[in-house]
Specification:
By secondary structure, this protein is α+β, with helices and mostly antiparallel strands. The chain is built from 8 helices and 12 strands. The strands form 3 sheets. The protein has a 4-stranded antiparallel β-sheet. Strands 2-7-4-5 form a 4-stranded antiparallel β-sheet. A 4-stranded antiparallel β-sheet has the order 9-10-12-11. β9 and β10 form a beta hairpin. α1 crosses α2, α5 runs antiparallel to α6 and α7 packs across α8.
Length: 238
C-alpha cells in the first residue's frame, strides 16, 4: 500500500531523529512520540532561519539541505562558525541555559528543518537520563570544536588555517574511500573562506596549490577529497 505524503514526511523526520547521537537510546515508540512535537519548516537559499534573538526558543534538526552558523563583523565581513547538513542539529545549548547565541543561522541551499520548542525539549528529553548523558558528550564535542576555531583564528599562516578547516570538516563530515577522505558536502571557496576567516581569493589560491601538490582532489560535485599525504605532517593524525 502506498504511503501518503504526510506519512512519508513523518517517516523521514523519524529516520533523521534516530541518527542523532543523543537520541540513540530512545525506543521506536519514543522517537515517534518526539516526532509529533516537531514543526517542519522549509527555507529557500540565503534565507535567515534563526536570528540571534531567537536562538533560545527552539532546537533545530536539518531534515534536508545545508545551513551555516555565521555572524557578520563590524567590518561587514562574514564569519562562519559551522556548517550543518542533513541529520545535523543546532540550538541545543540554548535549550539548556535559555540564553541566546551570538550567531545567526542561514540556509546555504533550499533547506527543510524540524523545530522542537524548549518546553517539549525539557519534557521529552531532559527527563531521560540516558539522553542527558549523550547531551553532555555532545557538549564536550562542541567545546572541542570551539577550541579548534580558536586555533584557526590564532594562526597567522593562511595555509595552516585552510588545512585546519579542511581537516576539521573531514573529521566531522568525512567518508573514507580508496582515494582518501571525502568531505561529504559541497563547499564553495567562499564558504571555506568564511570558516578560515580569509579572503576568498586567498582560499582559491591555496586550494589550487594543494591540488597541484596532489594533497587534495576536487570532484565535479564540488566535494573535496583529502588524500593520505594531506595529513602526513599532522601530529593529530598519527
Amino acid at each position: 500500500m502506498l504511503l501518503s505524503r504526510r506519512e512519508n514526511e513523518n517517516s523521514d523526520i523519524e529516520r533523521v531523529l534516530a541518527r542523532l547521537p543523543f537520541l540513540s537510546s530512545l525506543s521506536t515508540e519514543e522517537l515517534a512520540l518526539l516526532r509529533t512535537t516537531f514543526r517542519k519548516k522549509t527555507f529557500t537559499k540565503n534565507t535567515m532561519i534563526l536570528g540571534e534573538e531567537d536562538t533560545n526558543r527552539y532546537m533545530y534538526v536539518v531534515v534536508s539541505g545545508k545551513v551555516k552558523v555565521m555572524r557578520t563583523g563590524s567590518d561587514g565581513k562574514e564569519r562562519i562558525f559551522a556548517i550543518h547538513k542533513r541529520g545535523d542539529f543546532f540550538g541545543e545549548m540554548a535549550m539548556l541555559d535559555g540564553k541566546t547565541s551570538p550567531a545567526a543561522v542561514v540556509a546555504l541551499e533550499d533547506t527543510t528543518v524540524g523545530l522542537i520548542a524548549k518546553d517539549d525539549f525539557d519534557r521529552y528529553l531532559m527527563s531521560n537520563s540516558k539522553v542527558v548523558e549523550r547531551i553532555i558528550e555532545m557538549l564536550c564535542a562542541r567545546l572541542r570544536e570551539s577550541w579548534l576555531m580558536l586555533k584557526v583564528l590564532s594562526s597567522s599562516d593562511a595555509e595552516q588555517r585552510v588545512r585546519t578547516v579542511l581537516g576539521h570538516l573531514a573529521d566531522t563530515h568525512g567518508v573514507s574511500d580508496a582515494r582518501g577522505t571525502i568531505i561529504a558536502m559541497k563547499l564553495t571557496h567562499k564558504e571555506i573562506a568564511g570558516y578560515a576567516n580569509l579572503a576568498r581569493e586567498t582560499v582559491s589560491r591555496l586550494l589550487t596549490s594543494l591540488r597541484k601538490g596532489e594533497e587534495i582532489e576536487i570532484l565535479d560535485s564540488h566535494q573535496i577529497v583529502l588524500k593520505p599525504d594531506f595529513r602526513r605532517d599532522d601530529p593529530a593524525a598519527v
